[in-house]
Design a protein that fits this description.
Helix 1 packs antiparallel against helix 2. It contains two helices and no strands. With 75 residues, it is mainly α.
Length: 75
């Protein structure tokens, strides 16, 4: 089984991948290559956004859980 990779490492790897895709964009010579690079760029940016939004969601769930315990303890 694979070991869990920390969020920061995952995002850094994705940002590195985005940099390489940007390099491919600069060196692409025809429309087909540019279209493929555009798709790759969109996918990588989507993954970065997904991981960041997931982290925000986890924090929101934690805050809601804390508030629920506070309300439960008052009763």
């Amino acid at each position: 089984m694979k070991k869990h990779i920390p969020l920061d490492s995952t995002i850094k790897e994705l940002e590195d991948m985005a940099s390489r895709v940007n390099g491919l964009e600069v060196s692409s010579t025809d429309e087909y290559q540019k279209a493929i690079v555009s798709v790759l760029k969109t996918l990588v940016q989507g993954e970065i956004t997904l991981f960041k939004e997931f982290e925000h969601l986890k924090k929101a769930i934690d805050l809601v859980t804390l508030e629920m315990f506070k309300v439960k303890n008052k009763n």
